[in-house]
Amino acid sequence: MLPQQDNDPFHNSGLPFRYAPDTKKKIPDSRTLASSRSALALAALCREVTAFLRRVSKMGAMAPSQQPQDEAPQSEPGLVLPLPAPREPLPRPYYFEDGLRRVSPYFYTYNTWCKERWRGRELLDVFQNEFRDRPLEYYRAAMVSGQVAVNGKTVGPHHVLKNGDLISHTTHRHEPPVTAEPIGVIHEDEDMVVINKPSGVPVHPAGRYNYNSIVEIMKAERGPAFAPRPCNRLDRLTSGIMFIAKHAKAAEQLGVQIFQRTVRKEYVARVMGKFPDGEVVCNQPILQISPKLGLNRVRANGKAARTVFKRLAYYPPTRNPGETQHVDMSASGNPELGGTEEEAARGPAASRKADEGYSIVRCLPVTGRTHQLRVHLQFLGHPIQNDPIYANQKVWGFDLGSNDADGIQNSDEDVISRLSRMGKDQVADAVAYYDEVVDEYYKKKAEKMSGEVCDTCNTPLYTDPGDQELSLWLHSLRYEDAEGAWSYVSPLPAWAMPPDGAVGPTQVGGMEDLVGAAGPDIIE
Asked: Which of 223, 334, 478, 482 has the least CB density, counted as fewest CB within 10 Å?
């Protein structure tokens, strides 16, 4: 499946039908049809495309020896796929079920220009090595049929790509559901909307997500004339403050401020164990070890990175039901407070018990590397408690990647291999310090292959994502102008509030201590 480029002038998408919630059968979406004539035409188009995709699926199931190998194959007589997929009008195909925002499956054309590294390579070779979501047989059949085309023409799997080629892939698209939690508005004026982004929703259409993205949801809520322009980025699983400009000038002005480092930002995270007291500065460089998986880790040859951390609160494990739990804000790592000298010397990862409780930690990123906070917290031995990647014992082992800048405990190859299996036939769970079987409830709730296929296109279907895959305990808490011209703070998320029976902080103070510990700027 090809990623859509934001500046692609040929992008098209379509919604020729929706599914009836009770029968799961395809029916025309009357909300998007201007007349009965257009409804009949759209229904006919759906039948034509559905028949085509079923035939393509059968071709994908053929043995390699049975598959056409011609450079310029002939399409089946009388079979014409409407390429690209017809543009889809508003309203978006959303519906809500089981606490999730869902999108009815629809036909969609992906477009991308030939990248420099693809030039001189066969079309099938590029798909085989660049994209993970479909088997090789599917791509070969799609190229033979014209479902995958170059410059609008059927060219076959052995076509050699060149600069300027436009590659298209028309498919029956299945988007994962996201949380039904609404997008909160912290501030709005004629130039900007400051939102509180829900966790689990990507900002831009990307990968398997299109309409289930912040940009598309806001378009659907505010009408087709609204053109949201995100000014800062957050990972899909991260929640919190985002700036959405209403016009290009406002986006440019804030972008200049961020680029010139006159904007400060603070995050809050819920991490494993008792985080040290005081300001903790992590200066470890970060390297991307797998662009395909978006995986990063601390490496000496990585890019310079700096983060300042400070513990807001520590919540030890509850001893007895109903017992009041008090917050320990004293210095940690001190043998006088319950630990041994040996444990203090070995570090947090080596002295872990079945349950050490958790800490709420304030985070000031001085630089802006991908996954910087998650990677630095992992290196310090206190990964985010529910991080499906960097707190995954199946990927990193018992120590969870703590203090492993040289990759001695886990080589890059081993980590990449283990992580690449997550989400296919295994469940990507964030495992705390104990080596126990994950509760069966969460195993059933986690997103993985269901064993079922779509009736229309034979695409393997995923189960619904579990709660642990819709939320990361990392929140963008505050953005402020360094000169004090403006400041926006969101409420603490529910997971950062004191648990039942506990006493602890419910709001965060100023950033003076964090800023003071940040030191001079780093040239990125």
From this structure: 223
pLDDT at 144: 94
**Domain end point (choices 150, 173, 196):** 173
524 in a domain, yes or no? Answer: no
In a domain, 24, yes or no: yes
The partner residues of 290 in beta bridges, in order of sequence, read: 295
186 has a pLDDT exceeding 60 = yes
What is the structure's pLDDT at 278?
94
Q: Please tell me whether residues 423 and 497 are part of one structural domain.
A: yes
With 80 as the cut, is the pLDDT of residue 418 above it? yes
Tell me: do 270 and 323 sit in the same domain.
Answer: yes
Could you list the residue range(s) of the whole structural domain that residue 222 is in? 184-260
Q: Regarding beta strands 279-282 and 487-489, do their DSSP bridges make them parallel or antiparallel, or are they unpaired?
A: unpaired
231 part of a folded domain: yes
253-257, 275-279, 465-469: the lowest-pLDDT one = 465-469
The values of phi and psi at residue 13, to 5°, are -145, 160
6 domain residue, yes or no = no
Same domain for 189 and 169: no
DSSP string over 70-98: -SSPPPPTT----SSPPPPPSSP-EEEET
The answer to whether 472 and 384 are in contact (CB under 8 A) is: yes
Q: Are residues 429 and 282 in the same domain?
A: yes
Q: Which of 380, 348, 384, 373 is nearest to 468 (CA)?
A: 384
For residues 388 and 308, membership in a common domain is answered with yes
Q: How many Cα atoms sit within 13 Å of 128 on the Cβ side?
A: 12
Please tell me whether residues 231 and 311 are part of one structural domain. no
Burial category of 327 from C-beta neighbours within 10 Å (exposed 0-12, middle 13-18, buried 19 and up):
middle
- This prediction's pTM: 0.70
- Convert the pLDDT of each residue in 339-374 to its tens digit: 334 433 334 443 444 478 999 999 999 998 999 999
**Tens-digit pLDDT profile for residues 88-147:** 556 778 999 999 999 999 888 889 999 999 999 999 999 998 886 778 888 999 999 999
List the beta strands (DSSP E) in 421-500.
Answer: 449-453, 460-462, 474-481, 487-489
**3-state per-residue secondary structure call for 325-379:** EECCCCCCCCHHHCCCHHHHHHCCCCCCCCCCCEEEEEEEECCCCCCHHHHHHHH
Do 404 and 272 share a domain, yes or no? yes
> Which of 118, 142, 173 marks a domain boundary?
173
167 with 254, same domain?
no
Task: Give me the pLDDT at residue 497, please.
Answer: 97
The answer to whether 487 touches 479, Cβ cutoff 8 Å, is yes
pLDDT above 70 for 38:
no
Number of structural domains in the chain: 4
Q: What is the pLDDT of residue 197?
A: 97
- Check which CATH number belongs to the domain holding 43 and give it: 3.10.290.10
pLDDT band at residue 8 using 50, 70 and 90 as cut-offs: very low
Which residues are catalytic, by number? 235
